[in-house]
From TrEMBL:
This is P-type Zn(2+) transporter. It comes from the Bacteria. The gene is cadA. Residues 30-94, 103-167 form the HMA domain. The chain crosses the membrane at residues 188-207, 213-231, 416-441, 447-474, 751-771, 777-799. The lineage of its organism: Bacteria, Pseudomonadati, Pseudomonadota, Betaproteobacteria, Burkholderiales. It comes from Thiomonas arsenitoxydans (strain DSM 22701 / CIP 110005 / 3As). One of its GO terms (molecular function) is hydrolase activity.
Length: 801
């Protein structure tokens, strides 16, 4: 998927040419391979090439932008010059060939949930020798550290120096989401004492019409009880030359006390501490929105014992292959396959659809779904930690840790905003008194107000909360989005390409016609065709095989069977090679005749798919099958058109059938006889006119799915590959989920824009008010923390969509 255009870097978004073969190493040279996370477009390649090409000892450079890797051939005693050059141009390079010899440790850090804390940790651990890469997930409060052997103790000591207690996660636990949502514990009594003391300081100040020794004592009590943790964090940040919110607030409160504004300093610290608690609780709600789905899975299940009896057993202890019984009204504890009994199951936690689904022997069932009417027994197919629901949650949590384009912009903006406003605050405190003879205390106070305004907390927190809420809302609808970038890009879709079989249609065609051709015996032709079709998993082949089975046709042994992608299948029966395939295969075999073409066209024009059995003596028989369009497909296409998205159907079926199905579904265009490469070229052509999505469910769709800006996988429930590889996985076969995804993407974009405008707008207003002398520290802290709470609350609205 190309992300280049989304970054606005100005480079071409055409296909990236990869090296077809690796050049041999020069005599005496070595090679180092780096992964560069922020290198994915030709502009960055040119920047790196220009920087490294001039280094003495660098022999050659090989770029792979799709994999974000750079291979450096060199004759250097040390790679320090290369790594320093990459760092100088802002490239985040990790040595892959060397780092792979180390290990990755996942740490849980309870007090890390803000970008300012991430920056603090990143700067500190960046100086620890042996640390190769840091991967932060603030929403889950985890840090994955790739490091050399023996370096972990140094990492833990460095984190402890910053005031962070890190716990090494057990690998078995880290592999699966915890059943218990994470919440932030709150110690309320210091905050209560601080609030009472600050209020008392205000009252005494008003009673005495000014400062009094009791005001000073009450203010100190309020600051120390409510703001001691803020001071500790602020001091650690300053020691590490980091101007985060805690450092700025500590300086502002200390300055206010220094110039005699004791009650105001106390109340500002209390309000800051209170707002941080409320903000943490709000973030916990977003953080646990998706993890709460695991509460739907029962902790125990009724399992058959070796002696044939049934007993309640913890779901975590149940092994694959165990036989489990489910009663009416119970939730299903584990993934499995029905062995005995029939029922209807509500699969809403997986697919987002609450309509019950009939279940009978052989059908799959999923953990967390609800058995409604009957009782049945099933065989467990996955452990509790690897159920479909657990994999969905794991995938969404991983997506939550990725940076969306808007978030990358906001982080870059915040990196410059705070130092600039801090420098402005110093100028405000010094220049007017020195140059214009203004009152020192007045302008120092205005500078302190600026320090409160200087933290971009509302801005940096607005994006991740909105993205996480959007991802969680999508998951509840049965839409698994693999990263914030796809959630943001969904609103820009202009074209949606769709496969036909199983996507627009039910994917369960039935044989409608059989025509013996030439001098071949009808019974022999059916027998040979059924033998070939039974070895294939294509829906058309299945229809031929099922019709033969229903009529009692005997199957023959097939040798050297192979699939012909986009054409059909072939195999040897009794030493003779036979082909069963479509019109394209017939043309390639040179077996087309006018009479045959006329018969095929007659069947295709009524929407039927025709396959032919071909042997050494020519065409033996024609088989026509027909599929039906899903009602949901028609409604989905109408909704997509209403959203301004054009549709095109790309199918390996014949053009006549493609046009007939497209007309029935309301699809704008249809292309038939499409091989995988043809679908790829069509998607590339469409991408010239805007963002393109591709919907598919088969191996033939893989190249086009990879090339599209967003690849949608249909019917991903229970499918490991789709959940792991698709950009967006639809947990059932309902196309209406795509319009839902687009609407959610547009709603997320609106919330992101509202949050950014709100956060920056409040900052701009208070910058003006500060210079005019109308802003107070009270107002500044209310505005700053109020803006944070507003953007968090606005982002959480997406959870209700």
């Amino acid at each position: 998927m190309s992300e280049c255009a989304s970054k606005g870097c100005g480079c071409s978004t055409g296909p990236i040419i990869q090296p077809t073969a690796q050049a041999p190493l020069a005599t005496g040279s070595a090679q180092a391979v780096y992964r560069i996370e922020n290198m994915d477009c030709p502009t960055e390649e040119a920047l790196i090439r220009g920087k490294l090409a001039g280094l003495a000892g660098v022999v050659g450079l090989e770029f792979n932008l799709m994999q974000r890797t750079l291979a450096v051939r060199h004759e250097l005693p040390s790679l320090s010059p290369v790594e320093q050059a990459l760092k100088a141009i802002g490239m985040q390079a990790v040595r892959m060939d060397e780092a792979s010899a180390g290990q990755t440790t996942k740490l849980s850090i309870a007090k890390m949930d803000c970008p300012t804390e991430e920056a603090l940790i990143r700067n500190k651990l960046g100086t620890v020798a042996g640390v190769a890469n840091l991967d932060f997930n603030l929403m889950q409060r985890t840090l994955s550290v790739r490091h050399a052997d023996g370096v972990l103790p140094d990492v833990l000591v460095a984190l402890q120096a910053l005031g962070f207690e890190a716990q090494v996660e057990d690998k078995a636990v880290a592999a699966s989401p915890s059943a218990s949502p994470v919440t932030t514990p709150t110690n309320w009594w210091p905050l209560g004492i601080s609030l009472i003391a600050a209020s008392a300081a205000e009252a005494v100040y008003w009673f005495h019409d000014g400062n009094h020794w009791s005001v000073v004592i009450l203010a100190l009590v309020a600051v120390l009880t409510g703001g001691l943790s803020t001071y500790k964090k602020g001091w650690i940040a300053l020691k590490n030359r980091n101007l985060n919110m805690n450092a700025l607030m500590s300086i502002a409160v200390t300055g206010a006390m220094f110039i005699g504004h004791w009650p105001e300093a106390a109340m500002v610290m209390v309000l800051f501490a209170l707002a941080e608690v409320i903000e943490a609780k709000s973030l916990d709600r977003a953080r646990n929105a998706i993890r709460g789905l695991l509460d739907l899975t029962p902790e125990q299940a009724t399992v058959q014992q070796p002696d044939g009896t049934w007993r309640e057993v913890s779901a975590k202890q149940i092994a694959i292959g165990s036989r489990v019984r489910v009663k009416p009204g119970e939730r299903i504890a584990l993934d499995g396959e029905v062995l005995d009994g029939r029922s209807t199951v509500n699969q809403a936690p997986i697919t987002g659809e609450s309509l019950p689904v009939e279940k009978s022997p052989g059908d799959p069932v999923f953990a967390g779904t609800i058995n409604e009417s009957g009782s049945f027994e099933y065989r467990v197919s996955a452990l509790a930690s690897n159920s479909t629901l657990a994999r969905i949650i794991h995938a969404v949590e991983a997506a939550q840790g990725s940076r969306a384009p808007t978030q990358r912009f906001v982080d870059q903006f915040a990196r410059w905003y705070t130092p600039l406003v801090f420098a402005l605050a110093i100028a405000v405190a010094l220049l007017p008194p020195l140059l214009m003879g203004a009152a020192w205390m007045d302008w120092i106070y205005r500078a302190l107000v600026l320090l409160v305004v200087a933290c971009p907390c509302a801005l940096v927190i607005s994006t991740p909360v909105s993205i996480v809420s959007g991802l969680a809302a999508a998951a509840r609808h049965g839409i698994l989005v693999k990263g914030g970038v796809y959630l943001e890009e969904g609103r820009k879709l202009r074209w949606l390409a769709l496969d036909k079989t199983g996507t627009v249609t039910h994917g369960k065609p039935a044989q409608t016609d059989f025509v013996a051709w030439g001098n071949a015996l009808a019974s022999d032709s059916r027998c040979i065709a059924a033998s070939l079709a039974a070895r294939s998993d294509h829906p058309v082949s299945k229809a031929v095989a099922q019709a033969a089975q229903r009529d009692g046709v005997a199957l023959l042994d097939v040798a050297e069977f192979s699939a012909l992608p986009g054409r059909g299948v072939q195999g040897q029966i009794d030493g003779e090679t036979y082909y069963l395939g479509n019109h394209r295969m017939l043309e390639e075999l040179g077996q087309c005749t006018p009479e045959l073409e006329q018969r095929i066209a007659a069947l295709e024009t009524v929407g039927k798919t025709v396959v032919m059995l071909v042997g050494a003596k020519g065409v033996h028989a024609l088989f026509a099958v027909a599929d039906t369009i899903k009602d949901s497909s028609r409604r989905a296409i109408a909704e997509l058109h209403a959203l301004g998205i054009n549709t095109v159907m790309l199918t390996g079926d014949n053009p006549h059938t493609a046009q007939a199905i497209a007309a029935q579904a309301g699809i704008d265009r249809a292309q038939g006889n499409q091989l995988p490469d043809d679908k790829l070229r069509e998607v590339e052509q469409l991408s010239r006119n805007g963002k393109v999505g591709m919907v598919g469910d088969g191996i033939n769709d893989a190249p086009a799915l990879a090339r599209a800006d967003i690849g949608f996988a249909m019917g991903a429930a229970g499918t490991d590959t789709a959940i792991e590889t698709a950009d967006v996985a639809l947990m059932d076969d309902d196309l209406r989920k795509i319009p839902t995804f687009v609407r959610l993407s547009r709603a997320t974009a609106q919330v992101l824009m509202q949050n950014i405008v709100l956060a920056l707008g409040i900052k701009a207003v208070f910058l003006v008010l500060t210079f005019t002398g109308h802003a107070t520290m009270w107002m500044a802290v209310f505005a700053d923390m109020g803006a944070s709470l507003l953007v968090v609350g606005n982002g959480l609205r997406l959870l209700r969509r």
